[in-house]
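Worked problem 6 (solution included).
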Amino acid sequence: MSPYRTLATLLCAGFLVAALGGCERKGPMERAGEKVDKAVEDLQEATRKEGPAERAGKKIDKATEEMNEAVKDATRRP
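Solution. The predicted structure is:
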């Protein structure tokens, strides 16, 4: 058998063992890490939503801008 063929056979066997070794069941640390990841995603999603205070603040900002425009218009006219 040639050295290249032996090397190729050994490499194929190594890849096969590595691929089958990666199919193990998840351990407790990996499951805990996934739970932490899920909790962080849930927290990020919760903070992206507008709450009642933010909606009220936007309405106040809009009303203030409209009032400022009205005051500017009123002061421009003779």
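Discussion: The chain has a mean pLDDT of 82.
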